[in-house]
């Protein structure tokens, strides 16, 4: 069973709190198996060494001397459907408050989806107004297509014994 000791240290930098996390097993500080009081100094000195090392690393990072670990490159996704389909999906997600409990607007969603899918989404409201002008039984062509194809996939999966066909 691993237990951790959390040490909170307020730095000299304004409004900067550094939380040092060390595994208690590394410093023999577990609460169940405390060493005799005579060995506490050794454990404290080990903990102070960890804190001192973390401070040095933090100072190096602030000065720019310590390279940050590069983030894993994001996988590129490309929207291959029509831009109007994406706007229809955005408005549906916005209407159902599916993202951030509805605390985000269509324009912010459009910006995020533009970044994710590498597509420029312009004039969302104009596209929405064009969707409203559609005269057919349903004005949500893309959402209808999504529902139809997903239901078809489920029926086909049921007919094959519930196996999910990977693409």
Automatic annotation (TrEMBL):
It comes from the Bacteria. InterPro entries: Tet_reg_excision_RteC (IPR018534). Pfam families: RteC. This is RteC protein. It comes from Prevotella heparinolytica.
